[in-house]
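Incident log, structure service

09:12 report received: a user says their structure output differs between two submissions of the same chain.
09:20 pulled the input from the user's history:
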Amino acid sequence: MIKVFEPKIDAFDIEEVKKSLLQTNISGTSPVVNEFETKLAKKFDRKYAIAVSNGSVALDIAFNIYSFKKSDEVILPSFTIISCLSAVIRSGAKPVFCDVNPNTWNMTLENVEKVVTSKTKAVLMVHTYGLAAEAKKIQNFCKQHNLILIEDSAEAHGQYESNIKCGSFGDLSTMSFYANKHITTGEGGAILTNNKTKYKLAKQIINLDFVNNQRFKHKNFYWNYRLGGMQASLGISQIKKLENTIKNKKSQGLYYNSLLEGHEDLISLQPIINDSTENHFWVFGILLKKKNTRNNIMKYLLEKKIETRPFFWPLHLQPALKKSKNLNNNNLKVSENLGKNGLYIPIGPHIAKADQEYIIENLLKSILKKRY
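09:34 re-ran on a clean worker, output below:
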């Protein structure tokens, strides 16, 4: 089976984790966690970083830092992972969905402007599948209108927009270090900020509301969201390889593009370069132009031992929202088309050019079989 993705763990990663084990730096309060946070902050042009147990937790904490009211609206793209919606709902705010650009599959300032109201309190800006959202434009808009900007950079390690690093936009940024990310700790995540007060609060939230002067007296029912020392040590090693990881992904993405030249009547792809951002191919996504064929094509590829994944299902169509009222679900056609007709194919260090050729050969066979 050619898997969609497999993490690459090399001798340097193993040595870093081994060192942590030998020094018994395994808990969430080990010095190696602080070292990881310092390196993260420096890497992504932030003053502070807080390592946490996963990317979904990072989003939850980012929203918990702000005291949202029931009437506060948070704009987020419908085409993204459920963690984003869950964080908004658990914060007590009202999610307001915007659509995404049909070419980049990412949110733009125009998408945001279409749904902003007098009740809008914040924007959750998400970078998806290899390209970045219109980060600088959205950030400027938020500053002009006194809106909170939270940036989800889970899929954008090493990505730039307008020559600015993703992970450095907005009031807070969040990251995921799941196994398929460009920097992985297996499971893990982080919140990044330049605000010292928010940094200290986040540190308190992830650590059971412990304070130095009265450690076991708690004013808040916070929880334990810490990242372990062994995971942090793996992350330190992974940070060092980020540029090389992206270089290899770009090479694979460009090769896929070359193999698919001349088939624009069958599929759509994210652009290689879009205005102020260059695709780093976190995944290699394919949007089928023939409607309602995606599931059959995925089944065909699985029979050929090629694993695939469907695109994100639009947030406004999630079954979990069936009991919610007064949520916008109109004019989100791009997100719906992506959710119904998109899939991504294997990419990463576990596949060679011969594998890519085999994958595209069978992909095209499956599309043509269903098309004609």
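09:41 both user submissions now match this output. Likely a transient worker issue. Closing.
09:42 reviewer note: The chain has a mean pLDDT of 95. Residues 93 and 314 are 19 Å apart (CA to CA).
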